Amino acid sequence: MSSAIGKPKVEKSDAEWREQLSPEEYQVLRQAGTERPFTGEYDETFTEGVYHCRACDAELFRSETKFASHCGWPSFYAPSGDDNVILREDSSMGMRRVEVLCGTCHSHLGHVFEGEGYGTPTDQRYCMNSVSLRLEPKA
């Protein structure tokens, strides 16, 4: 888990982020919010392709690692590259979790959980907010 987070590769002012993102996108990506379960566009989507950060367009996940967790949010068992995401401890809301941030712009994507018995190759569930992602379908 990354504890020392360097400067983002994409930096924008708060006003620039607000201008670029919808109110819901801003609340999740820049204020670490969470969309309601079972409401996101990618929850039950299994189209082949690449998932990008909705804020900066960096590649995050590939459809090959997406699985049906039935938890209400899109789930992946691994990012597409080690540097594509940053993990940091999150003790908000009276819980101890691991937050997942975009490795390029440090936007909030969701959380990662381990040891839940899904039988994935990594035994991890990257539980992402659909509003944090943009799917580029395979051509």
UniProtKB/TrEMBL annotation:
Official protein name in the record: peptide-methionine (R)-S-oxide reductase
SUPFAM superfamilies: Mss4-like
Biological classification of the source: Bacteria, Bacillati, Actinomycetota, Actinomycetes, Pseudonocardiales
Region annotation (Disordered) ranges: 1-22
Domain MsrB, chain residue ranges per copy: 14-138
Origin: domain of life: Bacteria
Alphabetized UniProt keyword annotations: Oxidoreductase
Gene this protein is translated from: msrB
Record field: transmembrane: none
Catalytic activity: L-methionyl-[protein] + [thioredoxin]-disulfide + H2O = L-methionyl-(R)-S-oxide-[protein] + [thioredoxin]-dithiol
UniProt entry tagged with the keyword Protein biosynthesis: no
